[in-house]
Amino acid sequence: MPRWRRPRRARRDLTPPPPEEDPNFMTTTLEPPITRTTSTTPDVDLDLVQVSGVLELRDGHAVLHTSGYQPGPGDLSVPAGQVRSLGLRNGDHLTGVTRPTAKGKGGERRPALARVDAVNGLAPERACKRPEFGDLTPLHPQQQLRLETGPGVLSTRVIDLVAPIGKGQRGLIVAPPKTGKTVIMQQLAAALAQNHPEAHLMVVLVDERPEEVTDMRRSVRGEVLASTFDRPAREHIALAELAIERAKRLVELGQDVVVLLDSITRLARAYNTAAPASGRVLTGGIDAAALHKPKRFFGAARNIEDGGSLTIVATALVDTGSRMDDLIFEEFKSTGNMELRLDRRLADKRIFPAVDPKASGTRREELLLGPERTAATWTLRRVLNALDTQAATELLLDRLKQSPSNTDFLRKVVTSRPDAS
């Protein structure tokens, strides 16, 4: 009997049919089928996004901060090739374009700057020819930054009389606690913005209280850069260093820049905390190597011979009960060429501004004031030096309230010496 066999099924053709829309479609048994599609991806240039920010060069990396001077989610990386070819420097303000964030195996990575269109407002080829800040010739301040704004703002009027500030000044406001230094800094910033709009104003707050930062930002017409006390010391340092580098880049272009720092004492503390131990500890527990960089920050102030200036006015804390703070002030005392001293005894008696006119002063003030005003100021000093601190301050404030301007006040000083009693 023959064996039964299952009938063989016909082999199915697994080759897909050609697309109807393509009459020229061809395929073979040796190659997979090919399907032609039309790309809907727009041109690459349409994906570019214009950005701007401040360049920070740190630890071999170049980062463009697009939302201020501190790290943020919108930061961009800058290729090292662009930094070298364009001669970019720390603190440069760049304008360029970037592409949307690309995704890798580890998730999203920081987008890169695709092209640099402007460096500090100049074309990149022009920015390459700018001078180095260290090669600029420093001079004594020769042009006064007039701070007097009105008869009722006595703080700035007193500063113009007893410790005038010039373009390129390196000044210290020596302040014990609760003597009104924050108010003086705000009035100083307001006067600079009103009387000298050509100067670029930067207020740098280091290790400050958050409410003071908010108050300063609302009252100052200028850049306010702040790092609050709840942030680590390295963030204080990074902010201050990037701010001073930004100021240097502007001075290289011939601009006048004014930096108000509150305070140089807290900045030195931050450097002392973050610096590796050198084995040389000074009195008060401060490392000897920790003072070099804050001195370099303060020493950047100068008047430039060929145009431009960098003025730095910093507060120094004294009588805080900390030996470290006193040592920091002593180290910076000899480096400044202007000093405004606030007195705690005057503040306790609610005499504001609590300025000690006898201990305050400016080196080479005759270069700022001119011969006539210098003679009148020296006459005023002889009158004030004959009195004690409280009597001198009260006399000065009382006579200023009776005069509509400092010019009128000094005219009265020259014509008839005020009665010291």
Describe the structure.
This protein is α/β, with parallel strands linked by helices. The protein has two domains: 50-101 and 109-128, Beta Barrel (OB fold (Dihydrolipoamide Acetyltransferase, E2P)); 138-365, P-loop containing nucleotide triphosphate hydrolases (Rossmann fold, 3-Layer(aba) Sandwich). Helices cover 34% and strands 19% of the residues. It is built from 14 helices and 16 strands. It has helices at residues 80-86, 124-127, 154-162, 181-195, 210-219, 233-252, 264-274, 292-299, 323-333, 344-348, 366-369, 371-385, 389-401, 406-415, and strands at 49-58, 61-65, 76-77, 93-98, 103-104, 107-108, 113-119, 138-139, 170-175, 200-208, 223-228, 256-262, 302-304, 309-317, 338-341, 361-362. Strands 8, 9, 10, 11, 12, 13, 14, 15 and 16 form a nine-stranded mixed sheet that branches. Strands 3-2-1-4-7 form a five-stranded antiparallel sheet, with helices on one face. It has a two-stranded antiparallel ribbon with strand order 5-6. The longest helix is centred in the middle third of the chain and has 20 residues, at 233-252. The chain is elongated.
